[in-house]
Design brief:
There is one protein chain. By secondary structure, the protein is α+β, with helices and mostly antiparallel strands. About 30% of the residues lie in helices and about 15% in strands. It has a 4-stranded antiparallel sheet, sandwiched between helices. The relative contact order is 0.25.
Length: about 140
C-alpha cells in the first residue's frame, strides 16, 4: 500500500506546534531554486540516505513530507522529511539534530541539505485545508 505523504503545514496543524523539516538539493543550489534542475534525483542522493540513516540511528523520528500546501499548484514530494522533534534548545534530540545539521555559527554543515522551521502560526493559514472534502472539491476545479 502506498504511503500517504502529508504536507508539512498539515503535520504542524496535526501536532499543534511549530515543526522542523529538511530539504535536499543538488550541490551549488540554494535549496530553494533547485527545482528547475531536472537532472537532480533525490531518490539517488547519497547525502539524503546518510542523513536519514543518522536520524534513525540516533532515535530521531522522521517521515517523508511534502512542501507547504499551495492551492495554485500540485507538487510531489522532492524527498523532504519532517523531523518529529520540537524546536526547543532544551530538548536533547533537537540539540543533537541541530548540532549534526548545522555548524556552530548556524550555517548548514552539508551543502546539499537545508534545515527549515515552520511556525504553527504560518501553518494555520491553511487550516481550511483540513475541512472534510476540501481537496476533493479543489481537485474538481483544478
Amino acid at each position: 500500500m502506498p504511503m500517504l505523504i502529508e504536507h508539512i503545514d498539515a503535520i504542524a496543524r496535526k501536532k499543534q506546534r511549530d515543526v522542523l523539516y529538511l530539504t535536499f538539493h543538488p550541490k551549488g543550489s540554494t535549496g530553494i531554486d533547485w527545482r528547475d534542475n531536472d537532472s537532480y534525483n533525490w531518490q539517488q542522493d547519497p547525502m539524503r540516505e546518510t542523513v536519514c540513516n543518522w536520524l534513525t540511528e540516533h532515535h530521531i523520528a522522521w517521515q517523508p513530507c511534502g512542501y507547504f500546501a499551495d492551492e495554485n499548484s500540485i507538487c510531489g514530494s522532492d524527498g523532504q522529511i519532517y523531523l518529529d522533534v520540537p524546536y526547543d534548545d532544551n530538548d536533547s534530540l533537537y540539540v543533537l539534530a541541530r548540532d549534526y545539521l548545522e555548524n556552530p555559527d548556524g550555517t548548514m554543515r552539508f551543502d546539499t541539505v537545508s534545515f527549515w522551521y515552520l511556525p504553527l502560526e504560518k501553518a494555520m493559514e491553511n487550516a481550511h485545508h483540513d475541512e472534510p472534502g476540501f481537496w476533493e472539491k479543489w481537485a474538481e476545479n483544478f
